[in-house]
Amino acid sequence: MPPRKSNVAKSKCALCAAKDVSEPRGEERYCRDCWEKKIAVEEIVAREFALKRYIRAHSAEKYLIYHSTIKRPCGQIIVVDDGYDLFLTIVLYPNFGWDEEAYHLEGDTEGRSFAEILVDVVATEVIEPWGGGKWHLEIFRAANPEPEDWNGEM
Ligand SMILES: [Zn+2]
């Protein structure tokens, strides 16, 4: 495979194969119309996720991740603010197809997985409301579908 050219002024859009590419900036692969269509599809896919906050502390929060296709949560998010940066940990449960393509557009070779779409959702619904700024993200895969209930008191 030849190296991908960054300046591909004459290339045609990957989706409609008719118009010249103009989007996204720097990695032009789509025409404006098709790019907007792709973004719109990603937004629809993103809306299938729901983040429900169930712990709210002064400098930390915990969310459960739900997807419209299953009843039980399919992941969780822990946010910790150390006063400077935001530290996020996402745990993905194995009860959801995180690696599957979130959508398919004919001719598009740049599909995105559900896990990638989730990161967009987290940026919009968690990181932005916390005030944005510098953030760090770790993603882990859980072996069990849901965390076990371990409770105690000392
Ligand atoms: Zn196009």
Topology as a string of helices (H) and strands (E): HEEEEHE
| Number of separate strands | 5
Ligands present: zinc ion
Cα distance, first to last residue? 62 Å
What percentage of residues falls in helices of 4 or more residues?
10-25%
Morphology: elongated
Instruction: Report mean pLDDT, rounded to a whole number.
Output: 91
Structural class: alpha+beta
Low-confidence runs of at least 5 consecutive residues: none
Relative strand content: 15-25%
Described by strand count, sense and barrel closure, the largest sheet is: 5 strands, mixed
Number of helices: 2
Strand order of the largest sheet: 1-2-3-4-5
Gyration radius (Cα, Å) is: 19 Å
Taken together, the total number of domains comes to: 2
Task: Give structural attributes.
elongated; alpha+beta; 5-stranded mixed β-sheet; 154 residues; binds zinc ion; single chain; 2 helices
Report on this structure.
The chain is an alpha+beta fold and 154 residues long. It folds into two domains: 1-46, no CATH class; 48-141, no CATH class. 19% of the residues lie in helices and 24% in strands. The chain has helices spanning 32-46, 114-127; strands at 49-56, 60-67, 75-81, 86-92, 135-141. It has a five-stranded mixed beta sheet with strand order 1-2-3-4-5, with helices on one face. A hairpin with a 3-residue loop joins strand 1 (49-56) and strand 2. The structure holds zinc ion (ZN). Residues 13, 15-16, 19, 30-31, 33-34 line the site of zinc ion (ZN). Zinc ion binds at residues 13, 15-16, 19, 30-31, 33-34.
